[in-house]
User: What shape does this take?
Amino acid sequence: MTKNKLVFQFRGGPISVAEYMEEVLTNPKAGFYINRDVFGTEGDFITSPEVSQMFGEMIGVWVMCLWEQMGQPSKVNLVELGPGRGTLMADLLRGTSKFKNFIESLQIHMVECSPALQKLQHKNLKCVDEDSHNGNVDKRTISMLTGTPVSWHAALEQVPSGLPTIIIAHEFYDALPVHQFQRASRGWCEKMIDVAEDSPFRFVLSPQSTPAKLYLMERCKWAGAEEIAKLDQIEVCPKAIELTHTIAKRISSDGGGALVIDYGLDGIVSDSLQAIRKHKFVNILDNPGSADLSAYVDFASIRHSAEEASDDVIVHGPITQSQFLGSLGINFRVEALLKNCTDEQAESLRTGYWRLVGEGEAPFWEGPDDQVPIGMGTRYLVMAIVNKKQGIPISFQ
Ligand code: SAH
Assistant: This one.
């Protein structure tokens, strides 16, 4: 395979951390996500759908309950933002396949910028491309798991509107580019990336105000003076605000709801941008394009952006992933699966279960407190943005 290298356009001056992050992750030639499968033990990092089939199954329960609350529409757009390997969607479809009315209503839309991952999603959903009949140019792609039509798009705006819509964003927001600001004697300055003499890249503070300062001011309006006074650094993510506006407007016009799951905080995020290569933290500036970059998600800013975009939507949560999965019955699911499996499968089910709900307040842990398993249970938060018509979604009641 020929290796593409990232070439940054400095245009005569330093670039923002957000520009750097966007190039590193999604540059069409050499971005981290663009040419390969980065997930799982062999890859760079592991995500909940890859940890256990139960994750996608539980999301399936939530989606089906929302569909019930929406009045069981005969057609619904089920959109997933950044579906990775497509594992979550495959487990969701397998888990709900017995519920015929629900399955028959689905039109799946995968929002994915990476051609390599689109291909992998196509394979994992066992998709076949139907031949166009009678000169019909609308070729359909069908997932043979459930006979559901699937299509791919580069952005949410491209998903056709007009049908009730359910959107899933798992570990999508954390990949959106953030701007970083640092408090200096002359006020808040944007952190920029420049070419150094002795090493390829270095951080510098911008000498003048930058356009992203407007977003910083916007973000600070939503926070109390006390919250800001404690901080020396602030991250803001204009793309997250923009995406939330699009989601809220879509849900307001078409009905339905969105589920956002990610690691993050219910407030301003200070300095969280990190790089992970082969399951290890590495320097953000080292060998760009070869490591994943991600930042904590500012759930409070998602709430404010959704509320600002439309009066027809309401935001619930965030709650912790362990509360969310617990309320959907993951402990019953793991028990049912354990009844019918080999010793090896039982071990992997148990490990997977604790990775999903463990850490801190693992609610179903019956062992000693100091032995609570480490997992994604409390660092990962879950938020729902729903059309007010739908009432309160399950898990948030
Ligand atoms: N949800 C998956 C993958 C998370 S990684 C999981 O939990 O396993 C982030 C995903 O979002 C990848 O599929 C990546 O290619 C995609 N992605 C990142 N930035 C994107 C963008 N701006 N537009 C569309 N897809 C994007």
